[in-house]
Design goal:
Elements: E1 2-6, H1 10-19, E2 24-28, E3 40-45, E4 48-53, E5 58-60, H2 65-74, E6 78-80, E7 85-89, E8 95-97, H3 101-104, H4 114-133, H5 160-167, H6 171-186, H7 198-207, E9 219-222, H8 227-234, E10 241-242, E11 249-252, E12 262-266, E13 269-273, E14 275-278, H9 282-288, H10 294-300, E15 305-313, E16 329-333, E17 342-345, H11 346-350, E18 359-362, E19 373-382, H12 386-392, E20 404-406, H13 416-433
Parallel strand pairs: 1-2, 1-14, 2-10, 7-16, 14-20
Antiparallel strand pairs: 3-4, 5-9, 6-9, 7-8, 11-12, 12-13, 15-18, 15-19, 16-17, 17-18
């Protein structure tokens, strides 16, 4: 079959990887590069060039089985990385890092503060309660990783916010731990994060070993940056990728799918294909459809996105004041802020040695010395509210209808493995058509 794939993020590239040997595949990309959120850039610091990731950075073997298998197949080198998390509250001056007791009490005065001990106690209580919610759920099995609102105890659709009220958690716990932690992971709006369905949150955290249990997975990063895996992945079908070729519309024949032909419209004119895989954000995919069905409008239109500005820089003031509190991920509490404000310490994450710290900061460009800015990027991240998760559970209503498939990390929790599994699922569906 002739198959068009629109978009070269991880989902589009994995779909092309899975299908190009048996089909005539054409890949469209609006940008001048491939990779999507796998975006490595070269920066010079102190006369030395460093390859720094600015989107996708880390993964682990247990929770990324599809991606891990892909790296193994491609022979891509990886290395262990140090994952840690800190919080800085500019209003109160609080700083802590949740790695061990020494960093938790990075500010020694917290040893005599009852309020800080209450915070720690509530973290432990919340994690235990979250584990109980999903104690009977099976562990993830590859593609079986979609968020769920399941449960027969009357709390199936309960939001984090309602769960917190029911458990009588303090506002201090919410503001100084839960929202920073969740907003940092999903690059989410802090003011609305607690609308996230509680069971989905608990399932993700439990599978990633982030609910306080020992034995967390070893996180890893791609040696030389994520572009190393992208380059290896596209090598066999690089001649089939059309860069700087935006798809304006996808026009499907409303007749029977088996006999349909789909037109892909670009500045080069229309081209006809047997199947089209749209590997763009769900809102972008919906915009591409010339005549979307009611189901496509409902499902794709139910997932919204959060814009985030990522600034690559060397301004050390964006790290916590206490060296003990400095972590791989450093969250800055911005009262009333509507975007996650977190600084990734790329030296720790990618084992980079440089004379100045290399930092990637989300949504605090105004606090960074302009002379120390290396680059700036705009990213969009899915918002996983109840409407989005219900839409995910309906994805089979639209997959393959009129010969059009939709792939992307938005079908899961928004991470690289979700994109991989989405692509593999669609590739299997196309192979099963034969």
């Amino acid at each position: 079959m002739r198959i068009a794939i629109v978009g070269t993020g991880v989902s589009g590239l994995v779909a092309a990887h899975a299908l190009h040997r048996d089909h005539e595949v054409t890949v469209y990309e609006a940008d001048t590069r491939v990779g999507g959120h796998a975006n490595t850039v070269d920066v010079e610091v102190g006369g030395v060039i460093h390859a720094v990731d600015t989107g996708f950075i880390v993964y682990n073997d247990p929770n990324y089985p599809g991606f891990t298998a892909l790296l193994r197949e491609l022979g891509v080198e990886t290395q262990p990385t140090e994952m840690s998390f800190s919080v800085t509250n500019a209003g109160s001056g609080l700083e802590y890092r949740g790695s061990n007791l020494n960093t938790l009490f990075a500010q020694r005065r917290n040893l005599t503060r009852p309020s800080f001990f209450r915070l720690v106690t509530e973290i432990v209580r919340f994690n235990r309660a979250a584990r109980r919610l999903v104690v009977n759920e099976p562990r993830w099995q590859a593609s079986d990783r979609l968020p769920t609102t399941g449960g027969d105890d009357g709390t199936s659709d309960e939001s984090i916010e309602k769960f917190l009220r029911r458990g009588r958690y303090s506002q201090s716990f919410v503001e100084q731990f839960l929202v920073p932690f969740g907003s940092a992971i999903w690059s989410a709006d802090p003011s609305t994060f607690t609308r996230f369905p509680m069971r989905s949150y608990a399932r993700f955290m439990d599978n990633h070993g982030l609910l306080g249990l020992p034995g967390r997975a070893q996180w890893r990063t791609i040696t030389g940056g994520s572009r190393a895996y992208v380059e290896a992945l596209v090598a066999p079908f690089a001649d089939r990728i059309r860069l700087a070729t935006a798809v304006h519309k996808v026009v499907a024949d409303p007749s029977d799918r088996a006999a349909s032909k789909i037109e892909v419209l670009t500045d080069l004119g229309p081209e006809r294909f047997d199947r089209v895989i749209i590997a763009a954000h769900s809102d972008q995919a919906l915009e591409m459809l010339a005549d979307p069905s009611a189901s496509e409008r409902s499902v794709l239109g139910s997932i919204s996105y959060q814009p985030n500005t990522a600034t690559l820089h060397t301004d050390a003031r964006l790290l916590p004041n206490s060296r003990l509190a400095r972590a791989s991920w450093n969250y800055w509490i911005d009262p009333g802020g509507r975007r996650a404000t977190v600084t990734y310490w790329m030296n720790a994450l990618q084992a980079i040695t440089s004379e100045r710290p290399i930092l990637l900061t989300l949504n605090r460009a105004d606090a960074i010395d302009p002379k120390l800015v290396l680059a700036e990027f705009e990213y969009q991240h899915p918002v996983f509210d109840l409407a989005a998760i219900r839409a995910q559970q309906r994805r089979r209503e639209i997959q393959g209808a009129r010969g059009i498939y939709f792939v992307g990390a938005y079908w899961g929790y928004g991470f690289h493995e979700d994109g991989v599994q989405s692509a593999l699922e669609v590739a299997r569906a196309i192979r099963d058509e034969r």
